[in-house]
Amino acid sequence: MRGVVMHAPGDIRVEKREDPRIQLPTDAIIRLSASCICGSDLWPYRGVEAVKGPSPMGHEYVGVVQEVGSEVKNIKPGQFVIGSFFASDNTCVICRAGYQSSCIHRELVGGLGAQAEYLRVPLADGTLVTTPDTPSDDLIPSFLAASDVLGTGWFGAVAAEVGPGKTVAVVGDGAVGLLAVLAAKQLGAERIIAMSRHEPRQKLAAHYGATHIVTERGDEGVARIKELTDGLGAHSVIEAVGTQESMMQSIRSTRPGGHVGYVGVAHDVRLPGEELFFSHVHLHGGPAPVRRFLPELIALIWNRQIDPGKVFDLTLPLDQAAEGYQAMDERRAIKVLLNP
Amino acid sequence: MRGVVMHAPGDIRVEKREDPRIQLPTDAIIRLSASCICGSDLWPYRGVEAVKGPSPMGHEYVGVVQEVGSEVKNIKPGQFVIGSFFASDNTCVICRAGYQSSCIHRELVGGLGAQAEYLRVPLADGTLVTTPDTPSDDLIPSFLAASDVLGTGWFGAVAAEVGPGKTVAVVGDGAVGLLAVLAAKQLGAERIIAMSRHEPRQKLAAHYGATHIVTERGDEGVARIKELTDGLGAHSVIEAVGTQESMMQSIRSTRPGGHVGYVGVAHDVRLPGEELFFSHVHLHGGPAPVRRFLPELIALIWNRQIDPGKVFDLTLPLDQAAEGYQAMDERRAIKVLLNP
Fold first, then answer.
1. CATH number, domain with residue A277
2. In this structure, are A13 and A109 located in the same domain?
3. Which chain A residues touch B230 with a CB distance below 8 Å?
4. Distance from B279 to chain A by nearest Cα, in Å?
5. Is A110 a residue whose pLDDT tops 80?
6. A176 CB contacts (<8 Å, ≥6 apart)?
7. In tens digits, what is the pLDDT along chain B, a chain of 340 residues?
8. Residue A229 has pLDDT above 80, yes or no
9. Which of B276, B291, B292 to mutate: most A Cβ within 10 Å?
10. Quick one: which of A70, A135, A337, B96 has the most CB atoms within 10 Å?
């Protein structure tokens, strides 16, 4: 089959890879209906994370089950399924507490390479969730968004304790940040402040429910949030970048007793203990347990109550993946969908 | 009046200070029934925090109201009252959310010097809480503990989401840590692991409800907590020290999805973002909003359901405060009560 392989920072190739096969009786093989490029794929692309030899890329996936291992009970060939970036058994005590991305048997799907034609999914019964029926083509981008960026933005909102009557700020205007706006709206936030200086992203944020746009960043961004909240800060801030600046901006934009939900994969972040201590904020986040939210997200998409697929503003055939990476790196595209 | 003044690290003197007077119509003056030395007083005593000239010491206090300002409505002369280290109006939106120690009008009582005969308490209506009647002398140490160390340990337990069925670990065996054990017991924890290598403190921890004692620290301490929790870590960890080591020990001892409540005043702490991200813990803490808990704590003490005053294992007259500091610094005493 064909699949995307990163050979070095900036060096993306679509090449022949071995067809995945059932390796364990809990595996499933799916034929991918669509895959996509993630903001987190840009970290190694930009050389911020090391690339250790040729690496199959991609960890967001939807598709049709081709084959299942002998112990797979819930998932059947022919079903349309969605999974997320960590395979999980969904039965251990950590999964049952809602933290499937820290499942004691978790496996990173990233290394398996979902930017391809086929994918082996470990722990299929725990990891994959079916749609009510095979979806029409126009719903596929939204289901693909549920695989990571929607689930991650949603977790950010849940971790930030978004709810009715609250003022929510979202730091980061990538796909995760934009879908955190959507999540905040769904979870009943009263005011949603999107922090973005890019017009197409501002528009999408407004479409998803942002009531205010703040273009300033850093200390000035914090000052604007304070101005909008009687000098106190937001009740809930969702961090969707992963840098020192964005973390500090998030903590400083939150009122005492408020909540920061952080889902940007942290890079070179060192949180100053004294400031955190006196900030009085709650801090929670990490790799989103997307699996926890998938049943609810699938229902919302199936019933066309939300349209997270709009974050895909560029669709390319798999063979043009390199152009997709470049477009995202240069911020010409919010998120790129790849058709196998 | 006489009061404790720190002139430099290690230099504690009891000297004549000016009698406090009503300065604002919201002030009250109280005659102190008892005061005490706090673990946090040891930071400047040891030179870890700078001492900027002669500083009146002490921020824990119980006593009898002598005089109130013209706008004070709830508190009357003759009443026995307890306050905490931040004066707060108890009416602003932050106070009403339960974060009185971040009150928008807060004032630090520390600078006013409660290790003395009299104390001016700002925002008396918001800050002070009365007991049902004048307590008998034997209850005074417990009420004094409620002023800070009990309220702080309690907040640590609440911030760590301690509750029925949970396994709780407490890092730090000072008065706050020991009273966090008491709080965890009251809040219904199933197992309470006290981390201590000092026998008298271990005994008091057991008296307060610790079901397990772990003497190891750092990585070995984490390993012991994991052994006791099926390799997962505790549900709730209360951090009551404030160093890099104790914070990391706490985070690493907590299971994914679990809660760290940190109440040790942070000193030179830098939390690594990547590790925090993948730990999946909830982090909350800061200066305890003791005022939130005072009504409940006063009732528990008045009804003799808890005995937090046992943390005072050395009682001295105010004039011997220097000996009290030395005893705490050398860990010969857990906590020192000063009789004016």
1. 3.40.50.720
2. yes
3. 93
4. 7
5. no
6. A39, A149, A152, A153, A156, A240, A263, A264
7. 999 999 999 999 999 999 999 999 999 999 999 999 999 899 999 998 899 899 999 999 999 999 999 999 999 999 999 999 999 999 999 999 999 999 999 999 977 899 999 999 999 999 999 999 999 999 999 999 999 999 999 999 999 999 999 999 999 999 999 999 999 999 999 999 999 999 999 999 999 999 999 999 999 999 999 999 999 999 999 999 999 999 999 999 999 999 999 999 999 999 999 999 999 999 999 999 999 999 999 999 999 999 999 999 999 999 999 999 999 999 999 999 999 9
8. yes
9. B276
10. A337
Whether residue B230 sits in one domain with residue B130: no
Q: Is A255 exposed, middle or buried (0-12, 13-18, 19+ CB in 10 A)?
A: buried
Is residue A130 within 8 Å of residue A75, measured between CB atoms?
Answer: yes
- Find the domain containing B174 and state its range: 153-285
In B56-89, which positions are buried (b, 16+ CB within 10 angstroms) versus exposed (e)? bbbbbbbbebebbbeebeebeeebbbbbbbbbbb
Q: Pick from B269, B285, B301: which residue ends a domain?
A: B285
Out of B104, B257, B266, whose CB is closest to A274? B266
3-state secondary structure chain B: CEEEEEEECCEEEEEECCCCCCCCCCCEEEEEEEEECCHHHHHHHCCCCCCCCCEECCCCEEEEEEEECCCCCCCCCCCEEEECCEECCCCCHHHHCCCHHHCCCCEECHHHCCCECEEEECCHHHHCEECCCCCCHHHHHHHHHHCCHHHHHHHHHHHCCCCCCCEEEEECCCHHHHHHHHHHHHCCCCEEEEECCCHHHHHHHHHHCCCEEECCCHHHHHHHHHHCCCCCCEEEEEECCCCHHHHHHHHHCEEEEEEEEECCCCCCCEEEHHHHHHHCCEEEECCCCHHHHHHHHHHHHHCCCCCHHHHEEEEEEHHHHHHHHHHHHCCCCCEEEEEC
Sign of CA dihedral A202, A205, A211, A212: negative
Whether residue A265 is found in the same domain as residue A278: yes
Quote the radius of gyration of chain B (alpha carbons, Å): 19
Domain check: are A250 and A127 in the same one?
no
Angle at alpha carbon of residue B53, lines to B49 and B59, rounded to 5°: 60
Q: Are residues A14 and A122 in the same domain?
A: yes
For A270, the closest chain B residue by CA position comes to B272
My answer on whether B16 and B119 are in the same domain is: yes
With a cut of 80, say whether residue A29 has pLDDT above it: yes
Q: Which residue of A has its CA nearest to B229?
A: A93
CATH of the domain at B101: 3.90.180.10
Which of B239, B266, B285 marks a domain boundary? B285
Q: Are the C-beta atoms of A234 and A169 separated by less than 8 Å?
A: yes
Give mean pLDDT, residues A181-209: 97
Do B83 and B99 lie in one domain? The reply is yes
**ipTM of the shown complex:** 0.96
State the nearest Cα–Cα gap between B111 and chain A, in angstroms.
17
The B residues from 261 to 290 touching A (CB cutoff 8 Å) are 262, 265-274, 276-287
Contact A94 B283 (CB under 8 A): no
**A43 and A138, same domain (yes or no):** yes
Widest pairwise Cα distance in chain B: 60
Cβ of residue A185 closer than 8 Å to a chain B Cβ: no
Q: What is the longest distance spanned by two Cα atoms in chain A?
A: 60
Name the helix (H) or strand (E) containing A294. helix A290-302
Q: Please choose, from the candidates B36, B22, B192, the residue with its C-alpha nearest in 3D space to the C-alpha of residue B120.
A: B22
Count structural domains, chain A: 2
What pTM was estimated for this model as a whole? 0.96
